[in-house]
Amino acid sequence: MRVRVDPEKCQGHNRCYSLAPELFDVDDYGYASAAGDGVVPPELEDKARLAAANCPEYAVIIEEG
Amino acid sequence: MAVEDWATDYDIFDPEYCADPGPIWADLRERCPIAHTERWGGSYLPTRYEDVHAMAGMVPALSNQVPIVVPPVPLTDPVTGAVIRATPHIPPISSDPPFHGPARRLILPAFSPQAVARHEPYTRELAHRLVDAFAGRGRCDGAVEYAQQIPPKVIAHLMGVDENRGDEFIEWVRGILELGATNPELRVATAQKIFAFWGAEVAKRRENPGDARGSGGVPRDDFISELLRGDLAGRPVDDEHAMATCNLLLIAGIDTTWSSIGAALWHLATHPADRERLVAEPELLPTAVEELLRVYSPVTMGRLATEDVTVDGVTIPAGSRVLMNFPAANRDPRQFPDPDTVVIDRAHNRHVAFGIGIHRCAGSNLARMEMLVALSVFLERIPEFHLDDTGAVTWCGGQVRGPRALPLIFPKA
Q1: How many domains is chain A partitioned into structurally?
Q2: Contact A59/A4 with Cβ under 8 angstroms?
């Protein structure tokens, strides 16, 4: 599984970062991006789904694979 | 005048709407999802999550130049005859692109999660101090003595202003938003007081930019000092922009958060099972805060249609004002199962209490931190509390909704 943040949609709500700080980074302005290469370790897959399901902008994208 | 049909004649100041708008929104959502009224100068009111989401993206067709919808009338200065804006200029909430982006980037770093964490120790100490004052009494007004006290003092702390000015902040915010909403003269008089205050704070820092706190009493690491050193699209920040931005923090950062803290305390006072669960499982608090924000969202922002806009089959003509009903969107059953129930551990919660799109509340991390600390300290110090039936709970409505009187009783500590 991979996670990414659509920079066109992210408005800096920080919901993903607060729910799954292992998987996301936020810049000085609060905008989020996937941490590292975005690959989600199996034990964090539920957290990744939770982050996606709480983004009010639908900016967190999960790629199963 | 009582409302007969909410679809064509809603009134956001009606006592029934202030006390519990949920059933009104539920009716409108099915019968007339975008309602209209001629009251208070006229406006449109969406109630579905999907519509509110779509409308937040209609920039600049739905413009932010009038975020406060009522009162509508521009006023005339009695002395000069000049037209006075009834809504103060408060960038970036009152800005559209392209100016909006730089004005927003100027303030966002002060409200990042890391920046906000710096104010947590003060907020915690303040919350304890407030509880100290009433814990031995066995009763308090949770709105006036607790919820209402926290945001103005945290904002004063953040801005490098004496926390005792917090009491005046409360009066000013009510003068603009609550009492001023239906009293334009009061709103203008209050705005003039606020500008004089920020003008003096800005001037003090301009005269003495390098002084450390304590040397001459002028702070330098506070929000206002940072603002004056900031960059606005490649240009230095002038006094006018700095004062208007200070104004934004005052208007957007105080009664909003106090309404959220107060509504959360009201919920916990009236839902003992949720209160007991949070006392037993404090690790649920961050999730609970999001859910309480969803069900008791305090803020309805305004927009102005600068062209004809069609949403959900309804055409909103150019020149119309729109109430971005984030609170109603958050109760839409199409998005939230069992929407009127607080599910303290609701896992999937795309709530829009802080708005969505480019105008997402810039202070949302600060508001969350204040709510979390306020609830965590209250529950730790006073784990068992109820409404005092001898007093009356009152809710204020309009564009910011929350309890204004919240009598609570509890075992003396």
Answers
A1: 1
A2: no
Q: Which pLDDT value is given to residue B74?
A: 52
Enter the ipTM: 0.96
Structure tokens at B321: 């004002």
Distance from CA of A8 to the nearest CA of B (A): 10
| Domains present along chain B, CATH in parentheses | 6-409 (1.10.630.10)
Longest dimension (CA), chain A: 31
Indicate whether B77 pLDDT > 70.
no
B264: its two tokens: 């959360």
Q: What pLDDT, on the 0 to 100 scale, is given for residue B40?
A: 86
Cα distances (Å, whole numbers) of residue B12 to B56, B119, B370 = 20, 34, 27
Contact B40, B67 (CB under 8 A): no
The CATH number covering residue A16 comes to: 3.30.70.20
Give percent above pLDDT 70 in chain B: 92
How far apart are the CA of A54 and the nearest CA of chain B, in angstroms? 5
DSSP label of B142: I
Q: pTM (2 decimals)? A: 0.94
Query: pLDDT tens-digit profile of B108-137?
Result: 999 999 999 999 999 999 999 999 999 999
| pLDDT at residue B218 is higher than 70 | no
In tens, the pLDDT along B361-412 reads 999 999 999 999 999 999 999 999 999 998 899 999 888 999 999 999 999 9
Look at residue B328 and tell me whether its pLDDT is greater than 90. yes
Asked whether A24 and A52 are in contact (CB, 8 A), the reply is no
Q: How far is CA B100 from the centre of its chain?
A: 19
* Residue B73 scores a pLDDT above 60: no
Handedness of CA B377, B381, B387, B390 (dihedral sign): negative
Taking the C-alpha atoms of residue B311 and residue B49, their distance in angstroms, rounded to an integer, is: 12
Distance from CA of A65 to the nearest CA of B (A): 23
**Domain of residue A53, residue span:** 2-63
Collect contacts of B105-110 with beta carbons under 8 A, ≥24 apart: B105/A29, B106/B227, B106/B230, B106/B231, B106/B232, B106/B237, B106/B245, B107/B227, B107/B245, B107/B248, B107/B362, B108/A12, B108/A28, B108/A29, B108/A30, B108/B362, B109/A28, B109/A29, B110/B158, B110/B223, B110/B226
pLDDT at B4 over 70: yes
Q: Which amino acid is at B41?
A: G
3-state SS of A11-54 is CCCCHHHHHCCCCEEECCCCCEEECCCCECCHHHHHHHHHHHHC
Chain A contact for B273 (CB, 8 A cutoff): no
**B121 reaches A (C-beta below 8 A):** no
Q: Does B347 touch chain A (CB under 8 A)?
A: yes
